[in-house]
Amino acid sequence: MAKKDKCKTWGCKNKTKNNRKLCPKCRMREWRAKYPDRAAYHRKKTNAKRRGIQFDLTFDDFMLVYVQGYVLDRDNSMRGYELGNVLPMALHANAIKGATIDKDRHKTIYPGDDAPF
Q1: 40-89: pLDDT as tens digits
Q2: DSSP 78-110
Q3: What does the alpha-carbon distance between residue 19 and residue 5 come to, in Å, rounded to a whole number?
Q4: Could you tell me the maximum CA-CA distance found in the chain, to the nearest angstrom?
Q5: What gap in Å lies between CA 20 and CA 6, rounded to an integer?
Q6: CA gap 109, 64 in Å, rounded
Q7: Are 19 and 2 in contact (CB under 8 A)?
Q8: Among residues 75, 76, 81, 98, which one has the least CA distance to residue 44?
C-alpha cells in the first residue's frame, strides 16, 4: 500500500500519493511553471473542448502563433481554432472587440428604442 506523506511545498498541507515529494496540485503548479507554453496549449485546448469549439492546432502550430502575454483570437468566430484562423491579440484589445460585438448583437436583438443601453 502506498505511503501518504505531507507535501514538501512550504505551506501546503495536502497529502502526496505514490511516495512522491509533492501533492498533485503542487506538482501541476510546478509543471506549469516549468513548461508555460505547453500549459497554455493544454489550457486553450481544454477550454475550446468545454465550449464546444473545434481545436485543430498541434502544439507546433500553436507555437507559430502563440505570443506569451497575449490571447489567441479567432479571426472568423464561426470556424474553430485552426491554422490561418487564429492570431495573437492583446487581452485589452480582445475585450474591446468583444464589447463592440456585444453592442452590435444587442442592436439586432433590440432594434430602435427598445435597446437596454
Answers
A1: 999 999 999 999 999 999 999 999 988 888 888 888 888 999 999 998 88
A2: TS-B-TTTEEEE-HHHHHHHHHHHHHHHHHHHS
A3: 7
A4: 70
A5: 10
A6: 38
A7: yes
A8: 81
DSSP 16: P
Q: Is residue 28 part of a domain?
A: yes
Does any domain span residue 81? yes
Report the number of distinct structural domains present in the chain.
1
- By residue range, what is the domain housing residue 34? 24-111
How many C-beta neighbours within 10 Å does residue 16 have?
Answer: 21
Q: Which of 81, 71, 28 is nearest to 51 (CA)?
A: 81
Please indicate whether residue 80 or residue 101 has the higher confidence score (pLDDT).
80
Pull the grid cell for residue 12.
501546503
Q: Give residue for cell 516549468.
A: 34
In a domain, 36, yes or no: yes
- Structural domain contains residue 19: no
pTM: 0.71
One-letter amino acid for residue 72 of the chain: L
